[in-house]
Amino acid sequence: MIKALFTSATGMKAEQLVVDNTAHNLANANTTGFKRSQVNFQDLLYETRRLPGTETAQGLQAPTGLQIGSGVRPAANTKIFSEGVQDITDNPLDVAIQGQGFFRITLPNGELRYTRDGALRKNAAGEIVNSDGYLLDPRITIPQDAESVTIGTDGTVSVTTPASPTPSIIGQLKLIRFVNAAGLSSEGRNLYAETAASGPPTEATPGESGAGVLQQGFLERSNVEVVTEMVNLILAQRAYEFNTRSIKAADEMLSITNNMTR
After folding, report:
1. At 74, phi and psi to the nearest 5?
2. CA–CA separation, 182 vs 105, rounded Å?
3. Distance in angstroms (rounded) separating the CA atoms of residues 182 and 145
4. Dist. CA 9–CA 32, nearest whole Å
5. In contact, 35 and 116? CB cutoff 8 Å
6. N or C: which end of the chain has fewer CB within 10 A?
């Protein structure tokens, strides 16, 4: 009965983590390029009172064993990189990735980060940056007198100017792929960092080497499905409630045992 108290406590902590994770997903339901997370669990060590296959008599073996588990623990928090819905914005610097890949961003300290957030902008120097003003890598500078900006599905950036009404190419957007995107470290601000688990980054031209293509004038929305998250929330709440009932039942059994000695 004492074991049941601690076992149920691990279940309550696990379901609390599910609620925290679900709350984070729902809070980012409208975050550009956000990818939802799901929590994975593992069962804890077992108290083995009899192993399966234990000899019960000469030439006979028990078909099953007797093992009592110790509860559950969180094992991982996995990012799901399925594509979100693409919304039209008609902003020429909004770019959505249709398929696999990330934009590469350079931080002020020179470190590299990766993002699916294609809400790109111009800074005072005409350089393409993200919403925080971090430079896109490779750097692309839009002329001050540019009248229009066109970004092709292959990442080619072209502009027209009063002096040159014919579109001229000024650069090309690149996409970065990882062997295991789920192994990236979430850094906040819609940015990810490379880790040993993600593998090294591989640069590719959009539409080639398994990289996705680009859609100008669109933004990729969060892949969070509110209905699914609400169902997960209900399930976690009910599982939490059942664990509290287990604690209550164990406590009542302990109380009955104590009263028997009186």
Report:
1. -70, 135
2. 19
3. 42
4. 37
5. yes
6. C
Closest-CA residue to 31 (of 162, 190, 172): 190
Average confidence (pLDDT) over 177-204: 96
- Pairing relation of β-strands 86-88 and 218-220? antiparallel
pTM listed for this prediction? 0.89
Q: Quick check: helix, strand or coil at residue 11?
A: helix
Tokens representing 98 are 């249709």
Contact 204, 101 (CB under 8 A): yes
Q: What is the DSSP letter of 229?
A: H
- Distance, CA of 147 to chain centre: 38
Q: Tell me if the bond preceding 165 is cis, omega within 30° of 0.
A: no
| pLDDT tens sequence across 213-252 | 999 999 999 999 999 999 999 999 999 999 999 999 988 8
Mean pLDDT calculated for residue range 138-167? 94
* CB atoms near residue 107 (< 10 Å): 14
Distance CA 81, CA 70 (A): 33
- pLDDT band, very low/low/confident/very high, at 59 (cuts 50, 70, 90): confident
pLDDT of residue 261: 64
Question: Residues 17, 39: contact at Cβ < 8 Å?
Answer: yes
Cβ-based burial of 54 (10 A; exposed 0-12, middle 13-18, buried ≥19) = middle
Report the chain's mean pLDDT, rounded to a whole number.
93
Residue 1: which pLDDT band, with cuts at 50, 70 and 90?
low
Tokens 């111009």 correspond to 122
